[in-house]
Amino acid sequence: MKVFSLVIIVAFALFPLSAQNDFDDLFISIGELCFRNEARVINSLQKGPLQEAEGDSLIQLWDRYCGPTEASIRTRLLYDLKFNQDLDTVVPFLYWHTYLNYLSGEEILIPSLDEHLKWTQAEAARILASREWPIYEKAVLGLLASTKISEAYEFLRPKEFDDNPQVAELRELVQRKAHAAFRNIFSLSYNYFYLSNDLQANLGAMHGIALAMEIPFDRSRLGFQFGWAASEEKAYLRFDNQGVLTESDLESFIYFDSYLMYDMLAGRRSHFSAFAGFGFGQFFTDLNYINEADEEVMLGVSTFYPLVGLDYYLEVKGTQSIGIRSTFKLSNFDSNDELRSPLDGFMLQNTLYYRF
After folding, report:
1. Angle between helix 93-103 and 165-181 (nearest 10)
2. CB 61 within 8 A of CB 68
3. Residue 316, by phi and psi: left (phi above 0), alpha (psi -120 to 50) or beta?
4. What is the mean pLDDT of residues 295-319?
């Protein structure tokens, strides 16, 4: 009897506590309720490959508490493709804008959703490899399997996607996102300088390397290039070094160019451009003197010059490309006060570069 009475007392004591907990649950915000269930669904999904019955119920639970989100839509696309083998409708462009922002790094996901994104990428890759897909479904799976925007761009590049207008339009969107993701495009190049007149007579030709950066806009690019070159032959020229006429060879050539480039032709992989700008170049010597401020001053030969040129490059992987460029530089070194030897002539800089 005592035991029965004790059970009754405990039951009545716990009832208000349980009721209080249920009562408190009534005041959970919709956002918190969505967050709890979304975390629960994501954790359940990530335990393994997408399952048919369980996956459908989990996605429905996700939609019930949160409404269709980018992540739940992505999961539903994988479910329909894996178990229904097709898509009933074309995926809205608004969804792809959001998704591509994640791939290009424009938007950052919270850790749980980032882990879910990695899970869906792996699942999409498995589904893509499981069979041959129609063009549009293949494009959707390829985008969902991509881990970065350049990879998505490269996947949609083949001509097989041209016949489907939805995929061609989607590829244009991916291309814009891919190029926008790499706002500062760098290139490393080998340069051969063909010289004329006295420059050729004294130096023969020049070879060098350069690093360039280009900032793309709509159909144009603003570029900056810094380079170094050395001549094939030693050029011993006469200089007036503080009233003393002496000879010195020209050492390395350092230059800095700035230019504006316009795309004349932009194809699937190839781009042809024309550009114009200005630059500054200087030859160094081993001559120096001490000025009135007791500072060492190096004698050199420098000039400002206008430049024009043509550029062609071919995209080889994503936005990475190789290209050739020819730049005409109308140089004039004869305006230097210390130089007493003729050094006129133009430079034709021929460049082989890799853009990354």
Report:
1. 30
2. no
3. alpha
4. 89
pLDDT band at 115 (very low <50, low <70, confident <90, very high): very high
Look at strands 320-329 and 296-317 and give their pairing: antiparallel
Render pLDDT for 166-188 as a digit per residue (tens, 0 to 9): 898 899 899 888 877 766 689 99
Phi, psi dihedral angles at 23 (to 5 degrees) = -65, -40
Q: Give the three-state DSSP class for 234.
A: coil
**Cβ contacts of 263 within 8 Å, gap of 6 or more:** 219, 220, 221, 271, 272, 273
pLDDT tens-place string over residues 224-264: 999 999 999 988 888 887 877 888 888 899 999 999 999 99
CA–CA gap between residue 133 and residue 337 (Å, rounded): 72
Give 342's contacts (C-beta < 8 A, 6+ positions apart): 198, 334
- The two structure tokens encoding residue 219: 């159909």
Half-sphere exposure of residue 75, counting CA atoms within 13 Å on the CB side? 30
- What is the spatial distance between Cα 272 and Cα 6, in angstroms, rounded to a whole number? 90
For residue 28, is pLDDT > 60?
no
Strands (DSSP E) found in the chain:
185-195, 205-216, 220-231, 236-241, 244-249, 253-266, 270-290, 296-317, 320-329, 347-355
Helix (H, G, I), strand (E, B) or coil at 268: coil
Q: What is the pLDDT at residue 71?
A: 92
Question: Model-level pTM?
Answer: 0.71
Cα distance between residue 332 and residue 334, in whole Å = 6
